[in-house]
Amino acid sequence: MFDVNELPALSAYEWAHEEKHAFLTRELCELTRHHAARCPEYHKMLAASGVDVDRVQRFEELPFLPVRLFKEFSLKSVPDEELHKTMTSSGTTGQQVSRIYLDRETSTLQSKVLSRIVGEFLGKQRLPMIILDTSAIIKNRAMFSARGAGILGFSMFGRDKIYALDENMQLDVEGLKAFLKKHEGEDIFLFGFTFMIWQHFCAELRKSGYRPDLSRGVLIHGGGWKKLADQHITTAQFRQALHETCGLTRVHDYYGMVEQTGTIYMECECGHLHAPVWSDITIRRPSDFGVAEKGALGLIQVSSLLPHSYPGHMLLTEDEGRILGEDDCPCGRKGKYFEIIGRIRRAEVRGCSDTYEQK
Amino acid sequence: MSRSDVQLLCGGDCAQARPLQPFAEPVMAFLSDLGSALLKDKQAKAYPDVVTFAFFCRRANLETLRAAYAGQVDDRLGRGLTFHIAPSNVPINFAYSLAAALLAGNACIVKASSQDFVQTRIVCSAMEALFQGEHAAMADYVNVVIYARERQDVTEEYSAMCDARIIWGGDETVRRVRAAAMPPHGVEVTFPDRYSLLVIAPEAILGMDDKQLAQTAQGFYNDTYLTDQNACTSPRLIYWLGEGETVKAAQGRFWNAVQAYVQPRYPVEPVVAVDKLTAAYRAAIGLSGAKVHAMPDNTIVRVQVDALTADIDEHRCAGGFFIEYADKALDALAPVVKRKYQTLSYIGAEKDRLCRFVTENGLRGIDRIAPVGHTMDFALTWDGFDLIRTLSRRISVL
């Protein structure tokens, strides 16, 4: 296997298809063996799948686990004494949450790779940072929620950080004024979750009438569009609102999940999400889980070289999307680029068994 | 109770109705006229489940049902007022529940699915038309309503009035409805979550010609995919009565035929495909020697196991997910069957032998034994309850 410590040194978007695919196939096969030897549940799943790793020609042939399994089972490939922290997904009340077990090695790898990816968009310097969220979110560090972990993870790319919202979700106007005065003429890094930005930051700005000048800001935001889509808010409306309320124009969405922290998929200047060298996006046909053609809608399956402490290197999400192209985005980045369409919906099933609990 | 939240689909005031004898002539006439009306209804033709119900109601079938009780129920009367909670997801079920309770001699308040199915509307308008005509006297025996399941207060009011309560629709529904008290003398029939299986003699599959095989596949489809494999009667476990190459050959033939029949008729929703993959890996972790069979697509997901364990019934997933086990005898089944087991369907097995297997082993579960394709056939005995006897009282004369 490629020396894990060397992984973060790779360039995020320079490898074209052939080189990247061969690299991922070799490494993902190795990771499959690694987890089969260390995680008893994974060993059983691999055995049941009938896939013989020694005969795999392309990494797409390897088994992929539905992310839901991480809600039902404690899947880990390290002894308990080596566990460093446990990440949980942000489920709504009553839902089961994913539990992702990290040792120091995987955790460090995640940070370093995230740093490489974000560096491509923010530059090498740490920028003054505004977190578009409430300071209350990371108060409880015993349990990492996805939102808290995201904020902490991205905080390492900023300096002199402030939260735009106070503990009561009110805009900290005085704090922002002082911050912007202090950093006049500098680039500023802004980070937050899409829905929080729309619902609280933009809304509070509109309400207060305060119009901070963030035209030198770079915003990275994630966490999905589901809640905004439910309110029929489009990307264009979101960007428009940011432009109007604070002059922001450099806005990058990203796609990522707690089950594969680190290898996030950043939105480029052309509005495309990009797979970095450490991970890949495979669109699978729901009818047979075969690899869908470019442009065809299907389930998003993510592969990543980072998960060593838990068998999450090949995962099937419940998101739908399509590949837009590979190696030829006008932004110049190599690798696949794609778009997310949304979350698959649960249809009403027939039959006389209870549907009560699914509500 | 605010009546505005309870929608009356058809019928009158059940509180006044007097109990009738089982298979009373006014009920027989009403149901058979209902059957004829439905068979003539243009809209009903589009709904095979409504048509099947109409056939159930035709006079000849009702007479057959009555004949099975000939001389045995003359000293019986209906219990009085029955209150039915129909399942939310099987549209026509409310009508069978109603018909059975009427035949037992009762008035019926039926809570139909709040999903407001077209099938419900079709049957209710046909009944209402009969109440407006020559069956006016039957109106007081039928009251079909719809209300939100959250309205526990409505459920409480009906429960307090009734002499018998029939609950369809799963463990959670049963628990919720049970919280509403019935009068001290009230009896209750519950149809909670069940688990069903199919026993196949491989030689039977190997001995079929292509046409018979295709018919068998169609029957299997009707038992499973037609209700998203989510009916209590839908087999989830396939028990192959045999070993080795014979079973392998039969499996190949059977599943090829099922694949050919199901694939064009049953598009697998993406979320169901993910559900089934999740269930397969869950089985891989939890069940002994689990192997996922390679299939051409996600229409059918099969997991072979090398031992049956007591938790086998927990490994279920709607939409075409099957656990398979092969053994030369049924013995491995006896220790795992619990009360939850309902329908044992079969291909090529001898039904009397299967029945003896249940009785001689004193199994807690398995209430129905049916040939493939007939697991959903409604009968007056369901889930081990003789509905005519359970929903009537016997007057003993010393």
Summarize the structure in words.
The complex is a heterodimer of chains A (359) and B (398). Chain A has 359 residues and is an alpha/beta fold. Chain A has a single domain (14-342), classed as ANL, N-terminal domain (Rossmann fold). Helix content of chain A is 30%, strand content 24%. In chain A, α1 (17-38) crosses α2 (40-49). The longest helix of chain A has 22 residues, at 17-38. In chain A, 43% of the residues are buried. Chain B is an alpha/beta fold. Chain B has 2 domains: 3-192 and 385-394, Aldehyde Dehydrogenase, Chain A, domain 1 (3-Layer(aba) Sandwich), CATH 3.40.605; 195-371, Aldehyde Dehydrogenase, Chain A, domain 2. Chain B is built from 13 helices and 17 strands. In chain B, the strands form 4 sheets. A 7-stranded mixed beta sheet of chain B has the order 10-11-12-9-8-13-14. Classes of the chains: A alpha/beta (359), B alpha/beta (398). The A-B interface holds A 41, 44-45, 47-50, 65-66, 68-69, 72-73, 286-289, 299, 316, 318, 320, 344-357 and B 87-90, 93, 115, 149, 168-173, 176, 191, 193, 227-232, 234, 267-274, 277-278, 280-285, 290-292, 294, 296-298, 303, 318-319.
